Structures are given as C-alpha cells and as structure tokens.
C-alpha cells in the first residue's frame, strides 16, 4: 500500500474533513476521495449524463440535465464576496442569481469571511429556489465545506429548513445513484462530521427538528450511531429528547433478528455514551423506555458510569412511573446493589422518595431486610436524613416496625442516628419502646448517652427540640432520671464578641449612610425646566414609590440596629 492509499484509509477511519489549514484554499469533502472517484469516472469514459426528469411537479426539475462529472468540476481559488452579493443572498431576490453570474467571478469561487459559499448562505437563510438554482449552476458546492467543516446540508439542518434539506438530499441521491457502491460509501455526506464532530443528523435533533431528523435517518443507517466530540450519538440525543418515533426509526436500522445478535450489533455500532435506559429514565419518557426495553430487554441490567442499575437510578431521581415500569418487567434488580453498596430501596430513601420506597416494599416484601454496606436498613436511612413521614410510615406498619431495633455496623439504631443528626421530628416516633431507648451502640452509648456526649453549652434550636422530645420519651416510658439531659447555657464571653459587635455596627452605619444619601439622589434626577421645575422626573412612575419605601425602611432599620448595638455595648 503506497502512502496516498494509507492517507486515504486514515481519513476514512477518522471521518476527518480537514483539507487545509489555509483558509484561502478551497475546502471540500475529503479532497483525495473526490479526486479518486473522479479519476475512476474518467477511466470509465462516461460522465453520467441523465435524461430530463420530466416531472416538474415533483420539485426536482432543478436536477435536469446535470452530469455526474459536474460534481467534481472544482473551481480555482476563493474570492471574497462583496457586500452587494452578500446582501442579495440574504434577501434571496429572484435577480440574485443573475447578479452572481455578472460579478465577473465564477459563482463557485465566492466565499464569505467565514468560509461560506453562496450555497451555504442560501441554505442558512432558507431561500429554496435560490438553493435549487445554485445547485443547477454549481453542483460541486454540494460537497464544499466552510471553516467549521460543514456542508450546506449541515447548515440547512442546523437552521431547520426542511425543504432545503430535502433538496440537498435529492441532489446527493441523484449523484450517489450513479456511483459504484464503494464510491457511494466514500462520498457519504450523511456521516461527515464538522469540527465539533456533529453530523447533519446531530444538528437536526439538537434543534428539535424531529421530522427532518427522521428523514435523515432513513437516508443513512450509520449516522445515527456516530459520536460527536462530546461523545454523544444521535441516538443518545433522540432518547434524551424523549422522541418515541425517532428512537423507533433509529433502532430499526440496527439490524439482526435474533435477540443476542441485536444486542451485540447495537453495542458494536453505537459510539460514545451508552446507558440508553438511564437516559430515557432521566428524560422521564415511558414511551422511549418501552421502545428500548421491548427491543433490547437485556439493557435493563446495564449500569451507568457511577455503577447504578436502571432501577436504582430511577429510584434516585424519584421517577415513580419509571420504577413501576421496571418492576413490572422484573423485580430481580431490587436485590442487586450498586457499586457503592446501596440497594434501590436505600437509594429511594436517601433521596426522600417515600412513594417509591412503599412501592418496592409492596412488590418485594423481603427488601425491607436488605442492608447497605454500613449495615443500615431503610429505617436507618430515613431517620438519618430526617424523612419523618417515611419513619412514621415504617414504624406504624406491623411488617416494618421491627426495623426500629436494627443496628448497623457501629451498633447504632435508627434512634441513635436521629439523635446524632438532631432529627427532632422523628424522635418521638422512633422511641416507641423501652427496649429501643435502652439499646447501646458499639461505644456502649444509648441514644440518651449520645445526646449527653455531644451536647454543647450553647446548643441551637434543633438540638433543644431533639433533647426535649428525647426527655419526653424517657419520662413517658419511665426510663429513669432525665435531669442530666439538660445543661444550663453559659453566657457569651463579651470580650470575644466585641469584634463581632463592632463589625455589625460598622455595616449598619454604612447602610444608614448609603440609604440617607439615596434619599437625596432620586433615580432619574429632577426636572430642570417649567412647568415642573425641581420635581422628580419619575414622579408618575409607581416604581419610584417602592424605591422610596424600601429606602426609608432600610435607613430606619439600620439606625435602629446602630442604637441597639451601642446600647448593648454600653450595658455589657
């Protein structure tokens, strides 16, 4: 294999579209591929002239009398288009084509400062008739790239001009039908990626032009599975968008009838990010979820980058319908833990999704006995995060109230964890039994012992409430003296707090100064002429009233704060 052939293969493998880094040189769909196909055409001794199509109502009359060789008739160096040409293209006037022919420069050589050809610009601005006329005059522009390595097809797809995409697709089909199979695959504009790695299909889905995207999928089966520079394929984007019809169209192209063959074929074709079921769940699209799992049931067992199963992921985001859908298919993943050691029921509890926890318990009663890597059951987790409604629901159920005496790897019961995290609302519910109050952890501490060990002289509101409820539970259950649970608060050290008070005093003084000054510098200023000389310009604007109201309130409160701080400092 010579060096040129090796270079060709490398371009095909990478899907590269860079022809030159010199912006003054022309940029075409891989130049060496065009030259190679053109040389083959010449060697066959024909240019592929076609008879008139005859059906003018089809809208394809612009393809009449085109020759395959016209596609490879590449003009010379670029010429910067002038403002008159650029303006004419933006307006899409009927006379624009005649003006382009009369500028003295071949139409195909004209370029904007961004490297767009006249066909790029006409496609971007949605001038269908102008696009057809330009293709008839300069078919080679169909394969020309701008400085973003985009074909006119990319530009039209990004702008959402369906009719222009159809015209460009018709042009591509016209020329492709006259090429050998091998050359047709080489000159395939549907799989060509721009500098960001996007195909025309990527751009159509990004703009939510789903009908256009479906037509591009039908034109080429491989483009749907190609990744862009961010590792995202068109299939991934369609799933993320929650478009059932488009996802169904794309999956039809994966091929293979047997289940194992389909799975392996999809896996080999799909580039970049996978985890399609997780994406469908995140999009909260039951329709797309059904399409994927009906076609590829084994994807239900797939894990994402964080090691979460599909069921665990649905539980973490609180997608109840998705959880029910997965449980309807199979309950086996309820008993499969993630890489962090959590089961789906724990994940749902950690995120406060009570309805999902109840659904899993209803369908899989044995899941209540499952422990995470810390040895914690679902009640431990609910108590730790302060999910009071879930705690109450579990403790009032005969099937789950026994979880209250469960101990984790450190020997902590749910009551221990509630006290450690000052979850005061759950204390009374968890302390439902003398046995629970008397249980000790591995450090030999009861819930009361933990409260006493972590109590601070100046405890905050949550700590006060937690201690109050724990005191009440001990008194109600008759668990001995509770006097040690309360400790007198110690007065603040005035020397240590002096700097703090001085800082507050400085801030209050600054606010008072600024608000006082703002009262004289009214927004909008004052009228300097009759008949309302000296009156505020915005007198009739209701927003001026709100400005003055809040300015007065800010000044009064800051002055009150100053007086209070000075008084407290004097008393202290």
UniProtKB/TrEMBL annotation:
Q: Which parts of the sequence are annotated with region: Disordered?
A: 1-25
SMART domains hit by this protein: ANK (SM00248)
Q: Which residues form a coiled coil?
A: none
Principal localization? membrane
Q: Does the keyword Repeat apply?
A: yes
Q: Keyword annotations for this protein?
A: ANK repeat, Membrane, Repeat, Transmembrane, Transmembrane helix
**Which stretches make up the PGG domain?**
496-568
Where the ANK repeats fall, as residue ranges, is 114-136, 340-363
SUPFAM superfamilies with a match to the protein in the record = Ankyrin repeat
InterPro entries per record: Ankyrin_rpt, Ankyrin_rpt-contain_sf, PGG_dom
Protein name, please?
AT4G05040 protein
According to its UniProt entry, this protein's organism is Arabidopsis thaliana
């Amino acid at each position: 294999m010579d060096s040129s052939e090796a270079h060709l293969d490398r371009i095909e493998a990478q899907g590269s579209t860079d022809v030159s880094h010199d912006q003054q040189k022309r940029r075409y769909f891989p130049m060496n591929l065009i030259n190679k196909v053109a040389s083959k055409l010449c060697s066959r001794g024909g240019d592929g002239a076609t008879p008139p199509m005859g059906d003018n109502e089809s809208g394809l009359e612009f393809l009449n009398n085109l020759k395959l060789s016209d596609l490879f008739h590449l003009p010379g160096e670029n010429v910067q288009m002038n403002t008159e040409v650029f303006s004419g293209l933006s307006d899409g006037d009927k006379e624009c084509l005649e003006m382009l022919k009369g500028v003295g420069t071949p139409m195909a050589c004209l370029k904007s400062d961004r490297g767009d050809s006249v066909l790029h610009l006409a496609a971007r601005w949605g001038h269908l008739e102008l696009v057809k006329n330009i293709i008839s005059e300069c078919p080679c522009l169909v394969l020309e790239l701008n400085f973003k390595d985009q074909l006119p097809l990319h530009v039209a797809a990004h702008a959402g001009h369906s009719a222009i995409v159809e015209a460009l697709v018709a042009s591509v089909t016209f020329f492709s039908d006259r090429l050998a199979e091998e050359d047709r695959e080489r000159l395939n504009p549907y799989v060509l990626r721009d500098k960001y790695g996007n195909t025309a299909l990527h751009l159509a889905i990004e703009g939510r032009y789903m009908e256009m995207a479906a037509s591009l999928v039908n034109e080429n089966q491989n483009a749907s599975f190609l990744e862009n520079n961010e590792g995202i394929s068109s299939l991934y984007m369609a799933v993320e968008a929650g478009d059932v019809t488009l996802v169904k169209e794309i999956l039809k192209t994966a091929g293979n009838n047997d289940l194992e063959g389909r799975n392996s074929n999809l896996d080999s074709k799909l580039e970049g990010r996978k985890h399609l079921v997780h994406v469908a769940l995140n999009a909260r699209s039951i329709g797309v979820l059904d399409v994927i799992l009906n076609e590829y049931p084994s994807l239900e067992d797939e894990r994402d980058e964080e090691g979460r199963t599909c069921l665990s992921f649905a539980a973490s985001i609180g997608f109840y319908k998705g959880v029910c859908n997965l449980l309807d298919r199979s309950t086996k993943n309820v008993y499969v833990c993630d890489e962090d050691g959590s089961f789906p029921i724990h994940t749902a509890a950690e995120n406060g999704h009570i309805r999902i926890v109840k659904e899993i318990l209803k369908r899989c009663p044995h899941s209540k006995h499952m422990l995470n890597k810390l040895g914690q059951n679902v009640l431990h987790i609910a108590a730790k995060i302060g999910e009071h409604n879930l705690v109450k629901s579990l403790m009032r159920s005969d099937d789950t109230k026994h979880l209250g005496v469960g101990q984790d790897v450190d020997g902590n019961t749910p009551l221990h964890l509630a006290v450690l995290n000052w979850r005061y609302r759950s204390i009374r519910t968890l302390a439902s039994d003398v046995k629970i109050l008397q249980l000790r952890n591995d450090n030999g501490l009861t819930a009361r012992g933990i409260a006493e060990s972590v109590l601070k002289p100046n405890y905050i509101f949550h700590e006060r409430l937690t201690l109050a409820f724990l005191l009440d539970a001990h008194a109600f259950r008759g668990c001995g003296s509770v006097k040690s649970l309360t400790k007198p608060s110690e007065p603040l050290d005035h020397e240590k707090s002096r700097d703090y008070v001085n800082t507050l005093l400085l801030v209050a003084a600054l606010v008072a100064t600024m608000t006082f000054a703002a009262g004289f510098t009214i927004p909008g200023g004052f009228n300097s002429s009759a008949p309302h000389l000296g009156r505020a310009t915005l007198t009739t604007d209701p927003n001026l009233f709100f400005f003055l109201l809040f300015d007065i309130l800010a000044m009064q409160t800051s002055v009150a704060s100053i007086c209070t701080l000075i008084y407290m400092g004097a008393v202290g």
